[in-house]
Amino acid sequence: MSLTHGRRPLVFNAFLTNTVSHIHHGMWRHPDSRQARYTELELWLDLARTLERGHFDAIFFADTLGPMDVHEGGWKTSVRQGLQIPSGDPVVLLPALATVTEHLGLVATSSVAAEHPFVHARRFSTLDHLTGGRVGWNIVTGTRRSEARNLGHDDAAPHAERYAAAQEYAEVVYKLWERSWEDDAVIRDRESGRYSDETRVHAIDHVGPRYRVAGPHLAEPSPQRTPLIFQAGSSPAGRDFAARHAEGTFIAAHDPHSAAEVTADVRRRAVAHGRQADDILFIQGLTFVVGDTETEALARSAEIDEWLSDEAMLAHMSGTIGVDFAAIDLDRPIGDFTTERTQGIVAGLAAAAPDKSKTFRELTRWAWSQRVVGTPEQVADSLERWRQAGVDGVNVIYISLPGTYADFIEHVAPVLRDRGLMQREYRPGTLREKLFPGRGPRLPRRHPARQVTIAAAG
Amino acid sequence: MSLTHGRRPLVFNAFLTNTVSHIHHGMWRHPDSRQARYTELELWLDLARTLERGHFDAIFFADTLGPMDVHEGGWKTSVRQGLQIPSGDPVVLLPALATVTEHLGLVATSSVAAEHPFVHARRFSTLDHLTGGRVGWNIVTGTRRSEARNLGHDDAAPHAERYAAAQEYAEVVYKLWERSWEDDAVIRDRESGRYSDETRVHAIDHVGPRYRVAGPHLAEPSPQRTPLIFQAGSSPAGRDFAARHAEGTFIAAHDPHSAAEVTADVRRRAVAHGRQADDILFIQGLTFVVGDTETEALARSAEIDEWLSDEAMLAHMSGTIGVDFAAIDLDRPIGDFTTERTQGIVAGLAAAAPDKSKTFRELTRWAWSQRVVGTPEQVADSLERWRQAGVDGVNVIYISLPGTYADFIEHVAPVLRDRGLMQREYRPGTLREKLFPGRGPRLPRRHPARQVTIAAAG
Known about the structure:
Two copies of one chain form a homodimer.
Chain A: H1 3-7, E1 11-17, H2 41-53, E2 58-62, H3 76-81, H4 93-98, E3 105-111, H5 117-130, E4 135-140, H6 145-150, H7 159-179, E5 186-189, E6 194-196, E7 206-207, E8 212-213, E9 228-231, H8 236-245, E10 248-251, H9 256-272, E11 281-290, H10 294-307, H11 310-321, H12 343-352, H13 360-367, E12 371-374, H14 376-388, E13 393-397, H15 403-418, H16 431-435
Parallel strand pairs in A: 1-2, 1-13, 2-3, 3-4, 4-9, 10-11, 11-12, 11-13
Antiparallel strand pairs in A: 5-6, 7-8
Helix pairs in contact in A: 5-7, 8-9, 11-13, 14-15
């Protein structure tokens, strides 16, 4: 990375799901939280306005299509706790948010397992048009058994198969977005009555192991053509997919040191695939708990712990790791688990935990939230360290919705701006131009989306 | 129908697609038309505001997933003319329109062939939440070869198979919408920390010939649970599907007499399926060309004919009927075609045409638009006749977007209101309560959506 790269402001996204409780389970009960009103448009419109006022780069919606169902052998705990269920489709929130914002990036997850690529391609072209080029797509492949069972399968496909499917899916949508309509195909010639030059619009005639798609793409080219592409993969195959395709990748490193390892590895893989190291932005998930003094911040953090639901935090951990921790003794130190049945998994978590004397309860609270606790200045110091480790931005995890973002913008953002860590104003143009200034609205030619080919005829 | 039924105001929907040119092809070139800006949010927001100001009941988006490709043996004419291509996804327009309206119904087409029912069910639940219960779903089964070829098939499935698939699809989404979450499942109990009562949320465990869906539904019950259901089927199987499922059905009768035949037939079928005759609203597609005098209206109609593109109107007719009319002599009277290769089809059209001396050109202009030409009073007289024939409402086809609707609201609506043909204000409640006053927000128990069952456990 160049020195100037290290001094660019970080990217700030609000990191959410369209649900009651995303990560800090139990917080929906807090009197200040509006999370239980997630079905109402006004919550999201307010949030989008707040984020744009605070010059956040984007709002980023994670999503899943099946509940976590490992804790106590099923999904009942998830339902009881509002643990990412009930939930709503995130994609249909984006056009509503576009009506009250002008610059905010609008990023939603859409699963390769759930949507046909032809239909998905038109939907995201439409969103890119309606938002003036502010849309991002977070590609996921569907990892949960519960998702698979909602979509006609017995279990999630094996890892390699999912990434092979995602690879072909990407090729199909790239052909539709990048090759079906030439740049000058839409002429809107009122004299001759030709809306499009039909000689410059092409079928894609994709025939692959999983998909057959004739085309042409139904949508005319949108400002970005291909929406900004996010992908988060932590396995070797996932990292490789991100290295090939992603313009932004969400990471959940335990500390700047391990973030440096991931970013270096994925950037190296990207270069091996003919891309540039700075073609990918690494966005670290972090939670901020801030006070005027460190003591105040620590007191707030302790208060949050009181609100958290142990059962839901444990169910989230069980669901993510795939081991039912329902019967575990939450008050035992992590270090004690080395001889248990679950020792491999717990030991893995313990290895990442800085302090082996912490209890399992503390681990569940700490594992998914990456809490940064301190004064605004201490937060800025922490973010400097993340930036030095090669991180380009932060997915800000909420504790309380929408209060977390309002507080961050009021108390932390001014300090970050003074330190050059957060943008003061939006750059012009599409989301891609805002995040990769000077490169134009489209993907660079070295990206695989620009390298797909279709037969010349038709 | 009761006498009072015959005196209820008609339902008025704006009938559109998210595209350049829906039915009156060539009109996009007119200086007053904004159709060529269909990719911009502002056009649709303006239109929605206009429609709500004029107390239209709903905005109704038709859709297809493949271009018309019969004329000259392919889709090039469609692309050249902007004939429903390029197009955008209509579903993602709805949440944007919800932000600028309070009462307007928001109806979009979504195809059984294109969307998985589990994903579709959550998307429409989300829309119903975000809009406060104003969403309708127009069920289509996918009839075009070009659609099929975009979705992995060689051709559209046979008619009976498509309706069998639609039947199972409806069962799956009904189970998710109506049975997965009991009415009192969502408790939001901040004291106990239970968002939902997990004993009242159920898997659906649907196993059928086409779909296997475990559930539970991801979304909590929305105001209408099942969105208002539209379906337009003209074949016997289509009429039967409408009779079972539809709350609104779009018809394109040539005159009130044939409308009376359709409405009576479908209502009879509905009663045979255990529904009431007035459980289905029949919405006739009509185009209005209005002047202060009949002479002025006729002159406007002639002016519209001048703007229409013969090539595109013919391509639309070729695409709909499935016969390439590219080489036909547009100036020959319809009556002359009785000995041609295409005689069966043309004779069918000619039989429906009131005047056999009309030319083929006149037929293409007349066939899809059902033009009513006259003064506002003459339009009201015409609508009285449609209402007497059992029609409950009108899908108003645009000539120019958004001018058609603004003109209708300014010049025709006041006369219709004076005659009791159009509502003066919105009724309270969801779209279903607005269209079926006094029945509550949910489907009646006699509807098949309320009669699906799931296993009691889980």
